[in-house]
């Protein structure tokens, strides 16, 4: 392996990326818009997750104070109330899952309708609990959670950053190499002294450089708005992101090892990327999910990168405490890189 040849390919790929201003700008703008949107929606940590429909309201805009709803229901922070002219309008909205529970405002019999499914079940439990006499709750003792509270945006941000890295790695490596093969660029490189391993290494290093560069800019920019609470070391977080980015780029090399069809490669990238995004706990936790689903999530590098980064950022863990995840990321990188180099073809 000649370092000079790898370095030249590394410089050429970076220059191509920075000269494409539209792609360069979108790589910054897209994740920032997602973080900003979720920050505005969930920044207050008070989410109106469940919608209660009410009908037979008074004139004008209905508020919980205008109704005879239980006081405990009126003050629940996770509920929002939607008014309807008639019960039929409310039931129609309920049928289409636009609300989770429907009840009348000024009746004493507490009639209510509820949707099937988990959201309706939770809304019903909240409604019935609000009707319970206060003395039923006196036997319960609410306990405080020890430790520094973790805001939702502090938990979510590493996931969005990692998701952006994943799609950038798979598309920026896998899709680009297939496009080079289709347009004959790889065929011309084949007649040079450049080896497949040198070429793939340069592609991977170039993409990881761009991922970390955009990630650092993203982190600094978002931190100015949301003031992230980081319990652990920034260096440890950076090392973990680099290892995770390497494993994702190496996976992109496997995708790009063969083939000349951009459409087929697009399908393969989506086939890998979307399940990885949903099962790696980018948006929500898999706590309580079936065991087989959790085992499936373990095959994705994004799962281990996110678990390690969140442990460092939210819990103050060090690299020594997340070494299983770090080790798995390193092993995945080597396996993907070797397999991709073995499978790689310049022209087919």
TrEMBL record:
It is a multi-pass membrane protein. The chain crosses the membrane at residues 155-178, 199-221, 233-256, 268-286, 326-346. InterPro entries: ABC-2_transporter (IPR052902), ABC2_TM (IPR013525), ABC2_TM_bact-type (IPR047817). Its main location: membrane. It is found in: Membrane. Keywords: Membrane, Transmembrane, Transmembrane helix. GO terms for cellular component: membrane. Residues 121-347 form the ABC transmembrane type-2 domain. One of its GO terms (molecular function) is ABC-type transporter activity. The keyword Disulfide bond does not apply. PANTHER family: DOXORUBICIN RESISTANCE ABC TRANSPORTER PERMEASE PROTEIN DRRC-RELATED, TRANSPORT PERMEASE PROTEIN. This is ABC transmembrane type-2 domain-containing protein.
């Amino acid at each position: 392996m000649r370092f000079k040849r790898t370095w030249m390919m590394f410089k050429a790929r970076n220059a191509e990326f920075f000269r494409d201003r539209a792609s360069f700008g979108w790589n910054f703008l897209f994740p920032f818009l997602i973080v900003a949107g979720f920050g505005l929606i969930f920044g207050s940590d008070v989410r109106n997750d469940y919608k209660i429909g009410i009908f037979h309201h008074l004139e004008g805009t209905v508020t919980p104070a205008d109704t005879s709803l239980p006081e405990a229901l009126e003050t629940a922070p996770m509920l929002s109330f939607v008014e309807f002219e008639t019960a039929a309008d409310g039931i129609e909205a309920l049928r289409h899952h636009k609300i989770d529970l429907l009840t009348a405002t000024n009746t004493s019999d507490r009639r209510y309708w509820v949707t099937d499914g988990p959201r309706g079940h939770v809304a019903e439990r909240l409604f019935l609990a609000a009707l319970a006499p206060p003395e039923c709750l006196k036997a319960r003792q609410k306990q405080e959670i020890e430790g520094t509270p973790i805001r939702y945006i502090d938990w979510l941000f590493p996931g969005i950053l990692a998701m952006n890295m994943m799609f950038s790695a798979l598309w920026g490596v896998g899709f680009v190499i297939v496009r080079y093969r289709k347009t004959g660029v790889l065929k011309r490189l084949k007649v040079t002294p450049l080896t497949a391993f040198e070429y793939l290494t340069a592609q991977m290093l170039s993409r990881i450089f761009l991922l970390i560069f955009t990630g650092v800019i993203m982190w600094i920019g978002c931190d100015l708005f949301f003031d992230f609470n980081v319990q652990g070391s920034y260096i440890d977080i950076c090392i973990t992101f680099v290892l995770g980015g390497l494993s994702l780029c190496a996976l992109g090399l496997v995708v790009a090892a063969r083939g000349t069809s951009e459409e087929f490669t697009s399908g393969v990238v989506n086939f890998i990327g979307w399940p990885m995004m949903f099962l790696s706990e980018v948006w929500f936790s898999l706590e309580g999910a079936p065991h087989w689903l959790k085992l499936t999530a373990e095959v994705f590098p994004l799962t281990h990168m996110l678990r390690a980064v969140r442990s460092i950022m939210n819990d103050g863990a060090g690299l020594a405490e997340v070494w299983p995840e770090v080790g798995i990321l390193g092993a995945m990188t080597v396996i993907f890189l070797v397999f991709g180099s073995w499978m790689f073809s310049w022209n087919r």
